[in-house]
Amino acid sequence: MKIARRNDLSLRLLEIFGTLMLRQTTVAAAEELGISQPSVSTAIKQLEEQLGFELFEREKKRMIPTNEARSLFQEVEPLFEQLRSVESCERDLRGGTVGKLRIMATPPLGHSVVPGALSAFLADRPGVTVQYDVRRMDAVIDAVAIGAADIGLCLGLDSHPGVDVTTIQWERMVALMRDDHPLAALSVVSPQDIAGHNLIGLDRASSLGLMVQNAFDLARVPYTPQIEVRYCHTAAVRAHSSNGIAVVDYHTSTFLPNMALTSRPFDPAISVPACVISRPGRSLSRLALEFQRTFLAALTG
Asked: Mean pLDDT throughout 272-282?
């Protein structure tokens, strides 16, 4: 319930008063405030009428503050500082330079593209904090669906009833092997080429693992990995250590420092979408949208 008061002070009038106290002339105050000089004079008169006493003595073009004006200014100056702080915060929020962002990613992106995107995103945003985690697909979807994460980043998800899925890029899976592997001499690697070699498979319960198995089935080549692993990065490490061959996503193949590995297009082609998932019925915050743009730049760069 609002209590009516006869002399409610206008924040705008106080702002004009404070600017005039600092600038000392109505012309200078008007220029800073972006209003006309007569508007400044009118506002001061209105404020004096509300207060019941004069704030300035008029001498030619100068406004000389009264003792009452100086006392009032001492009281309201902290308010102006708070307003400037609020305005600065509002600009930062609008520009995506402050706040907290919760991101989850599946391992193929979480261990390759996302770390670099995060570094680029945070470089000029010291007021932003990020809560970041790498999980399996189902955990990422669940976290976004219940609001525990603002956005999720994953590979191989076309749609899901619990979240909104936005595909931002498609990439072809590749065959990965050591530089000295016999298949490294080929320009394209197929299931027929892999037959008889040490294949490191992906967990067939995962979307990428199922895609690889389906490609072998389509080529009518038995899918018989000697070892199955959960993550593409693990498959790459095993391919290097055991001189085997793995079929992994493109992003994993490009983020493997200190490993002498060669990648070749895998045929039949397996196109995998890189996706951003968000909570249904909720618009992404400006901060999340800014990160999404940074992530896309890292993905395509």
From this structure: 93
